[in-house]
Write a structure and sequence with these properties.
single chain, mainly alpha
Length: 173
């Protein structure tokens, strides 16, 4: 009896199926495997898109908060608050805390965030007080300056007197 082509193809397909089932990783077999994989990939892409959107929102909130901090520091500077004032230090600590929270949440380097905001360097410089010259040193420099100016005044008057005598000798002869 001749073997039908249908039976041969069925037997051939069973051999192929057995090798593909063994070769494939264990998991549920779905009739529409490509479609199912597409939905699964869409789900992970959807999650990553949501995370990207959340990061963008957090970054916008961080930028807005840092802008308010910098505007506050500029307002203090415009009103004449001296460098090294506690208000600047509190503002810098607040900015550092906000940057730290963002960088730990999104695994971003703190230095990279600070590099993107050059106004934070100005805020750091406002936290360092100007170097003050001690009062004793100011007094000493003032006294020495007065002595040197009197010596120079005396030398100048002596040169004027010598010049006057020299001119009178030539004119008087």
């Amino acid at each position: 009896m001749p073997v039908s082509s249908w039976l041969l193809s069925l037997l051939h397909r069973e051999e192929n199926m057995s090798t593909t089932i063994i070769d494939q990783p264990a998991g549920p077999m779905h009739r529409c495997g490509k479609v199912w994989e597409g939905f699964r990939a869409l789900g992970t892409r959807g999650i990553s898109a949501v995370n990207l959107w959340r990061r963008h929102q957090d970054q916008g909130a961080l930028e807005k908060a840092l802008a308010r901090i910098i505007e506050t520091a500029n307002g203090h500077r415009a009103k004449g608050l001296p460098k090294g004032s506690p208000a600047y230090i509190v503002l810098r600590e607040t900015a550092d805390a906000k940057i730290q929270v963002f960088s730990s949440k999104w695994s971003v380097d703190v230095a990279a965030v600070k590099a993107q905001a050059p106004a934070l360097a100005d805020l750091d410089s406002l936290c360092v007080p100007d170097t003050q010259i001690p009062a004793g040193l100011k007094l000493l420099v003032g006294l020495l300056g007065m002595i040197v100016s009197l010596v120079l005044l005396g030398a100048a008057s002596g040169l004027v007197h010598a010049g006057h005598d020299w001119v009178m000798r030539f004119v008087g002869r």
